């Protein structure tokens, strides 16, 4: 049997660690044709997503896909992300987490529509991600 | 809430990755007064343990302890290891895994009894651990 990628195992581990620690897990995702995310929040071919329990519903992370529902601009969206497109997971409050280096080169989506959504105060995802308050402590997995 | 150690989360993740990959997970453990392991297999203050599903029973890994039962020298032993004493976890077949560097300094147990056990062919743990067949690929977590 050939070895599986360690990435989804680390992803689930750090998600649980973040939540158990009372921190807010954020994902940085490389957007391409495989990802299903609201294009209006894509910047330079990437999107940053709050995946904490208070921001998403029905989150599921298997060895191939990260899927969940979340509100953007007041509308609920079904998000689908191949695990290989997750560039990093980190705690918003401290910056601790892990980067997956071999996937970190953004692929700019030239056909990004910019007309979908507007900001909303009741929106967990529409706020621009805040920089980590602490020293970033991402570990790199190649 | 203060952040929890990431170590037990990585430990569980890599254990699952090893087993799902069809590999054999091995632990390197720093032995001290907190660990409950057969002293006859301790060398230079450390013990290497096969923790694969075919070698152990009732393995449990929470945020504080790794516990399981295993046979050494034909006798069943209850093993208890504080998570902080786990120096590394790796796949025997490939050497892939993770080292926990801040814990890697062995503490030599001067009072190690050497009179307990003898080898046994039916014994999963009594065989000396084989060096990894592939290139070691341990990642360091500080």
What is the element layout, followed by pairings?
2 copies of one chain form a homodimer.
Chain A: H1 7-20, E1 25-30, E2 46-50, E3 56-61, E4 65-72, E5 75-82, E6 86-91, E7 96-100, E8 137-141
Parallel strand pairs in A: 7-8
Antiparallel strand pairs in A: 1-2, 1-6, 3-4, 4-5, 6-7
What can be said about this structure in brief?
2 copies of one chain form a homodimer. Chain A has 142 residues and is mainly beta. Chain A has 1 helix and 8 strands.
Describe the structure in your own words.
The structure is a homodimer of 142-residue chains. Chain A has 142 residues and is mainly beta. The first copy, chain A, has a domain at 26-101: SH3 type barrels (Roll). Helix content of chain A is 10%, strand content 35%. Chain A contains one helix and eight strands, in the order H-E-E-E-E-E-E-E-E. The first copy, chain A, has one helix at residues 7-20, and strands at residues 25-30, 46-50, 56-61, 65-72, 75-82, 86-91, 96-100, 137-141. In chain A, the strands form two sheets. A five-stranded mixed beta sheet of chain A has the order 2-1-6-7-8, covered by helices on one side. In chain A, a hairpin with a 4-residue loop joins strand 6 (86-91) and strand 7 (96-100).
């Amino acid at each position: 049997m050939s070895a599986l990628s360690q990435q989804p195992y680390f992803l689930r581990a750090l998600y649980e660690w973040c939540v158990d620690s009372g921190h807010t897990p954020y994902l940085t995702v490389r957007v391409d044709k495989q990802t299903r995310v609201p294009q209006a929040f894509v910047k330079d071919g990437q999107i940053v997503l709050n995946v904490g329990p208070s921001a998403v519903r029905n989150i599921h992370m298997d060895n191939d896909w990260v899927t969940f529902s979340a509100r953007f601009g007041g509308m609920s969206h079904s998000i689908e992300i191949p695990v290989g497109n997750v560039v990093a997971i980190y705690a918003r409050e401290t910056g601790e987490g892990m980067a997956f280096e071999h996937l970190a080169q953004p692929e700019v989506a030239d056909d990004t529509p910019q007309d979908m959504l507007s900001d909303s105060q009741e929106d967990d995802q529409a706020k621009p991600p805040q920089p980590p308050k602490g020293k970033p402590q991402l570990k790199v997995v190649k």
